[in-house]
Amino acid sequence: MAKPMERRLIAVEQELHITVKPVIGLIVATGVVLALAGSVGSDGSVHWALLRTSALLYVLAGLVWVCSRADLQVGAWLSVVGLAGIVILVSRWLGAPEILGLMALTTGLGAAMLGPGGALAVAVVETALLLVTRALTLGGLGTTGLVVPLGVIWSTVVLMAVVYRGVYQFHGWLEEYLQSMQSGLEEARDRRAQLEQAMQDLENANRQIALSNRRLADLRLSAEEARNAKMAFVAKVSHEFRTPLNMITGLVQLMSRSPSVYAEELPPEL
Fold first, then answer.
1. How far apart are CA 20 and CA 109, in angstroms?
2. Residues 77 and 64: beta-carbon distance below 8 Å
3. pLDDT, tens digit, for every residue of 59-74?
4. Please, are residues 46 and 9 in contact by the beta-carbon 8 Å criterion?
């Protein structure tokens, strides 16, 4: 039971993931916006940091597209880690450590593309990148500039874990509900099968009763025919016996009335 549930949770997690294609589109769109913003600054000058960032985003989008054609997981990891690296570079170019807070977006993107486990791995990679950046003193990253983005990154990880936990709990409740519905459906099917069997048995019983009634009617008809034949036989036999008996009885009566005619006396019994 645990393995099917685990497989269903993995399937739900995969359904919640976003694909690489919209991420590539987002990277390209961000590059276009930065290119437009950097080509003409507020004072009419060219903002080379934004143009370099735009170029890096274009390169990253191309690499992600090429890698995703071979392996989607590689493309997803490349997009997340590449965006985190670009955020660090932009923070250095602009001299604005607060931009590192945007790494929370890459953490959230990692959760959306790779799941909560992927978000945790992305947070570890981003933490390592920030520590390396501070060790190399790129962009003058101080303690405050390190703690704030790390806090934002790991807060995002915790938030993603809470969100996915709620999703898993909801899926567990939905799974139990679906199982209960399936059990009820199977029970209803069994009851329906029993009812159909009972209806079939009743139909067979009615058929047997109808057959018995037909046989009874045939037997009644046969008995009626036998009774009629018996009555006809008795009537015929009685007629055949009655005629000679009447003749004999009449002759005896004549003899008893006129015994002299027959030249002898009749017995006293007559």
1. 11
2. no
3. 988 898 988 888 888 8
4. no
Tell me the domain boundaries of the chain.
Answer: 2-185
CA-closest candidate to residue 113, choices 16, 12, 17, 23: 17
**How is residue 122 written in tokens?**
């992305």
Q: What share of the chain is helix, strand, coil (3-state, %, to 5)?
A: 90, 0, 10
pTM > 0.70: yes or no:
no
Q: Are 106 and 83 in contact (CB under 8 A)?
A: yes
Q: What is the dihedral of CA 233, 234, 240, 241, to 10 degrees?
A: 150
Taking the C-alpha atoms of residue 99 and residue 68, their distance in angstroms, rounded to an integer, is 28
Radius of gyration of the chain (CA): 54
Name residue 162's amino acid. Answer: V
